[in-house]
Amino acid sequence: MSNFRWVICGLLFLATTVNYMDRQVLSLTWKDFIAPDFHWTDDHYGTITGLFSIFYAVANLFAGKFIDWMGTKKGYLIAIFVWSLGACLHAACGWGATSLAGGSIVALTTISVWLFLSCRLILAVGEAGNFPAAIKVTAEYFPKKDRAFSTSIFNSGASVGALAAPATIPVMASYFKDAGYGNGWEMAFIIIGVLGFIWMGLWIWLYDKPAKSKYVNQAELNYIEQDKDIADVQNREEVKEEKTIPFWHCFAYKQTWSFIVGKFMTDGVWWFFLFWAPAYFSDLYGYTSDSTMGILLILTLYAIVTFVSIGGGYLPTFFVEKKGMNPYLGRMRAMLIFACFPLLGLLAQPLGGISVWWPAILIGFLGAGHQAWSANLFSTIGDMFPKSTIGTITGIGSMAGGIGSFLINKGSGMLFTLAAGSFLVTGGTSTEPEEMSVKNYKHLLTTELLAKGDMQVDSAFATLPDVEKATASFEKARKRGGSFFDEYATRAGIIENITGQKLTAEQKSDAGFIETQFNALPDKDKAEAEFIARKDYSAKAEIVVATLNSEEFKELAADGEKLAEAFQQHGCEVKSAPLHALGFNGKPAGYMIIFCICSVAYLIGWFIMKSLVPKYKPIVIED
To answer: Which segments cross the bilayer (predicted)?
Structure first.
């Protein structure tokens, strides 16, 4: 037997891996590379990611029908072309926003958000076609008993993509930034986007329907088609157009609603951890996504997801072949077991106080349970629906999953903001409360140290426990002045000091005006030297604060009440108190609430699905 079906499965795996890497480039570069260019806030990023979920959900509604209409070969090609183009177009957003903004920082921010939203729309439309096409190809190339395993293999591309992205994309962006190719993030989008175009060449070369493929011999074809009726096998040369179910008629079947419930209840859990896991380890344990420990935690999490989830395809096969169950009941039995995996998430937060590795491991098993669940959930469509309708049903379910994802991610962002509480610097210039986060506390301490003068900063830096390590960190950080350095605010301050004039808020927000005034200063060389000095001292002060207070930061990250007290001790007014819930306070309480929701979502979804479709009942389209 030729076994070419596994080559096709490998292509589906690669497509899904690229799909998830394209999706993650923005999440891994916006904070350190993109936000400084366009002055984005968390709210701007939240708007972009939230609307991406909506774009993806709506596109999924039509993606399946499009794949059914175009066929798997052409449909998949068009889908990956569109999302690869969308990925590459992100790189042009910087040039476009700068050209249209006319030097205004406010305009630059607004225009860049709209341009990125446009690119995310294109990306979402293309990416929506991946799973409907992949599921349809799986139904073409694998008998029912093997579909869960083959689906788990290509579906693991999601976790491999999630695993590869944090290990490569920030490093890639940093390399190209240092090499002078823009600000680095542009090349990251282009390189990951180009991978999709390479995949298209492989698809054109290798894919055809099993009966027409020159790589599939008769023995393998017989194996693939073993589920067909004898009469159908004998007459497979007669090409007949298979009847399909009209789109709106799909909603008349309980099988459709069962799939909708399964996707709506669980897809958001996976997307939540995809978008928030790096922030979780940063917010609660102080390990940023670009730190060695942060990368190791994420890699461990997704390594568990990847390798454990692949085994999820074996369990339904065991129930079918060893226990004599039909494919649907075997899958549902396996899904009940996988629905229990997320319950481990309830222990992640409590055990995190013992070691940060516990959340990484437990969330990894939660994610593995999701991927195994998802592989079997997708396979139930092939059990119940005719092949001509598989793409449509997959699209409908994926739309429901996208809506669930939007709700849980948008809701999580709102909950975390509420849970953290807010503060206002007493006597400060800002009248808008800010989130009580460790990052803002670091900023506050850095500002206080800088206010003590350059000599104090130099003295504190020189007495650090490991000066050589601190100096190495300084050499890297001085290029950008540290995380809190504001280039235009610094230039504006230098202009005011030299000229004695007070700039208005509008003038300070106009990048073009600041640049012009700075270049027109009487002693430009002196002004430039002062600017470089301010950048250096900002980086030094941040390193001093981070080094001397590292243990305190970890303690404060895990306890919102202590963090609020720390802000008060430094003259800040607490505007809204941190949330207290489930034995935690502050952001840890918010994460614990979401973990509880994620942990029980699968069991709730399973029982609803089982009540809708209690036993194997394939849909037959009558003449």
So the answer is: 43-63, 75-97, 103-123, 153-176, 188-207, 264-281, 293-320, 332-351, 390-408, 589-609
